[in-house]
Structures are given as structure tokens and as C-alpha cells.
């Protein structure tokens, strides 16, 4: 009877993990895969479903390192798309190959992954730090312009940017990205 309880407990943990993975990663993963499959929504959903199924099969491995889940999911999804492309190439062509021309090149995939990681790291910042970074780095405003926009002294903007960059560096390092 204890063995059955252990199996039920593991099943419950796996279901909780899958719910959490789906809630946190399905949307961004679908957007990423949609770009890889040239906007084919049905195919993108199939790839996301297969990716999450593989995550479920590897639940024990994923549970041990939560910070590397999204890169793992993106890598698996990309490989599923590549495998699908290769299998279609091995068969006689049934339809026009024009949609395959819009599959992003490796540089675009790396850029998309980098942007997703940076976006996640920005989400870890406090609202004040994030606003200071967005005003100075992303909108290209000077410290004085950012201070005027945010309604705080320039010294506060400098301080917030300093601490935000420091937090971003730590966050990116934790995600395995060298800033």
C-alpha cells in the first residue's frame, strides 16, 4: 500500500509540475515556435504539446534545476521543428516548400532566446529599477531626461540604474548567460 501512495504522490507532483510548466512557459514557447514554423498555428501547438510531453517524461531531471527549464524547453522545441523539417525533406515533396524559406536562421533563434532571457531577467527587477533601465537604456534618454520623466532626482535614477544593472547581471548569470 505504501508503494501505491508513493506512485500517487509522484503522479500528483508531476501533474503540478506540468501545470506550472504550462502556465509559465506555454505562451512564450508557442510564440517562439510559431516563428519557427512560419506562423502555422496548428503545427506550432503540436510542437509545444510534444515539448511539454517530453518535459513530463523528464520531470525528475527538470525538477532539480528550475532556472534552466525554459532554455531546455526551447532547445527541445527547436529540435522537434528541425526533426519535422528533416523528415519532410526525406519524403517526396507534397506541397510547396516556400514556407520553409521563412524559418529563422540560427542567428535569429539565438537572438530570440537572448531576448526571452533578458525579458525574464527584467521581470525579476523591482518596478522602479525596471523603469529606470527602460528610460535610460531602451529609450535612450539621458539621466536628466529620465529623472524628469520618472519624477525623481537624477541621483536616484543613477542609483536605480546601477542596482538594476547589478541585479540583471546576477539574474543573467543564474540563467547561464554571460552578460
Automatic annotation (TrEMBL):
Record-linked InterPro entries: RNA_pol_sigma-70-like (IPR039425), RNA_pol_sigma-70_dom (IPR014284), RNA_pol_sigma70_ECF_CS (IPR000838), RNA_pol_sigma70_r2 (IPR007627), RNA_pol_sigma70_r4 (IPR007630), RNA_pol_sigma_r2 (IPR013325), RNA_pol_sigma_r3/r4-like (IPR013324), WH-like_DNA-bd_sf (IPR036388)
Domain of life: Bacteria
Key words, A-Z: DNA-binding, Sigma factor, Transcription, Transcription regulation
KW Transcription (keyword) present: yes
GO MF annotations in UniProt: DNA binding; sigma factor activity
Key word Heme present: no
Classification via Pfam families: Sigma70_r2, Sigma70_r4
Listed GO biological process terms: DNA-templated transcription initiation
RNA polymerase sigma-70 region domain: residues covered: 21-89, 121-169
NCBIfam families the UniProt entry points to: PRK09645.1, sigma70-ECF
PANTHER family in UniProt: ECF RNA POLYMERASE SIGMA FACTOR SIGL, RNA POLYMERASE ECF-TYPE SIGMA FACTO
Protein family: Belongs to the sigma-70 factor family. ECF subfamily.
Protein's recorded name: RNA polymerase sigma factor
Amino acid at each position: 500500500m505504501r508503494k501505491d501512495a508513493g506512485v500517487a504522490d509522484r503522479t500528483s507532483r508531476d501533474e503540478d509540475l506540468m501545470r506550472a510548466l504550462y502556465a509559465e512557459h506555454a505562451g512564450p514557447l508557442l510564440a517562439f515556435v510559431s516563428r519557427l514554423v512560419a506562423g502555422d498555428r496548428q503545427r506550432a501547438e503540436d510542437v509545444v504539446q510534444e515539448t511539454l510531453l517530453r518535459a513530463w517524461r523528464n520531470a525528475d531531471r527538470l525538477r532539480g534545476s528550475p532556472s534552466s527549464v525554459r532554455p531546455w524547453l526551447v532547445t527541445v522545441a527547436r529540435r522537434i521543428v528541425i526533426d519535422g523539417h528533416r523528415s519532410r525533406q526525406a519524403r517526396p515533396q507534397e506541397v510547396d516548400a516556400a514556407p520553409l524559406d521563412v524559418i529563422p536562421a540560427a542567428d535569429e533563434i539565438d537572438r530570440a532566446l537572448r531576448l526571452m532571457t533578458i525579458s525574464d531577467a527584467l521581470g525579476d527587477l523591482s518596478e522602479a529599477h525596471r523603469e529606470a533601465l527602460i528610460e535610460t537604456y531602451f529609450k535612450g534618454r539621458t539621466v536628466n531626461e529620465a529623472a524628469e520623466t520618472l519624477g525623481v532626482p537624477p541621483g536616484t535614477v543613477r542609483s536605480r540604474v546601477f542596482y538594476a544593472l547589478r541585479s540583471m547581471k546576477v539574474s543573467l548569470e543564474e540563467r547561464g548567460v554571460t552578460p
